[in-house]
Amino acid sequence: MSTEVSRPARRGTPPPALRQDRRVPRAFYLMVLPALALFAVFHTLPLLTGMFFSLTNYAGYGEWSFVGLRNYANLFGDDRIYGAYGFTFLFAIVSTIAVNIIALAVAIALNGRIRFKTGFRGIFFIPNILSILIVGYVFNYLFSNSVPAIAEALGITSLTTSILASPDTAWIGVVILSVWQAAAFNIIIYLAGLQTIPTELYEAAALDGATPWKQFTSITFPMIGAFFTINMVLSLKNFLQVFDQIISLTAGGPGTSTESISVLIYRGGFQGGEYGYQTANAVIYLFVIIAISFIQLRILQRREASF
Predict the structure, then answer these.
(1) What is the spatial distance between Cα 267 and Cα 30, in angstroms, rounded to a whole number?
(2) Cβ neighbours, 10 Å, residue 44
(3) Cα separation of 243 and 246, whole Å?
(4) Rounded to an integer, what is the distance from CA 281 to the centroid of its chain?
């Protein structure tokens, strides 16, 4: 009668049962495949196609030929490109700062001990679910008709004409609409962050005689640093891609004073016969947004670590 002697497992080698548990079930891959296929078809493939056409003189119709990097070289000598970049960055920086200041102030107020807190939270979230185009046309009517009529009745001569009609003030209307619409989402993020702060910290600070401003700078703002980073990065990225607000309010005018990069790409690529040229512009802008978001994220994360 033969007996089998079990060999001791090698040191550092996990048991067979444990090795089997570490394997990812095939069902997980099958569930990921549809999403991966949709992402490839509707995102990766159009991106690669656009990069290819950026190397051609394709007008959006008819024949085309390969021109290499000529489109990219021409971008650096186009004054209209520089004007669109200048407006877009000015608008994005001002709007990002304004929306985060307003959203944080409103979130702190809604997080306090006030009546009808839940109802106010729902009201402030409404702009986030409305169509920005429809809201834009409403604001267009307000800026062009209602505000001048009210200003004339009150004797405010500087507002008797629409701010959208002047190249110097049209961008302010775009900022007002964009901040009003974007603040809703930022308020929700800040509220989520404020609710993670233990109330004991405020009670201890109050016993030590800390003023509300001191409590904000020493407790509130440092504790919601991660939420502030999220809002700043997402806000700047979204504002850099501003399109609907401009189309509904100014259509890029007066002249080209409120023409953003996205509007310029749309107009030139789909309406101006510059498909290949504006596709090159879009490719450059894609890498610009990625670089800005990465740099901004690294800087803000270092600020979080410093607290």
Answers:
(1) 41
(2) 11
(3) 5
(4) 20
- 129 to each of 108, 182, 187, how far by Cα in Å? 22, 10, 14
Largest CA distance in the chain: 113
Please name the helix (run of DSSP H) or strand (run of DSSP E) that holds residue 230, with its range, or none: helix 225-240
Among 239, 250, 242, 243, which Cα is nearest to 140's?
250
- Paired strand residues for 66: 56
147, 234 Cβ separation under 8 angstroms: no
- The closest alpha carbon to 185, from 246, 106, 78, belongs to 106
Rounded to 5°, the CA angle 179-190-243 comes to 30
Residue 283 CA from chain centroid, whole number: 18
Q: Which residue has the tokens 């548990």?
A: 21
Give the separation between CA 243 and CA 132, rounded to whole angstroms: 10
Residue range 128-160, pLDDT digits in tens: 888 888 999 999 999 999 999 999 998 888 888
Tens of pLDDT, residue by residue over 190-217, are 999 999 999 899 889 988 888 989 999 9
- Report pTM: 0.84
- Cβ distance 135 to 181 under 8 Å? yes
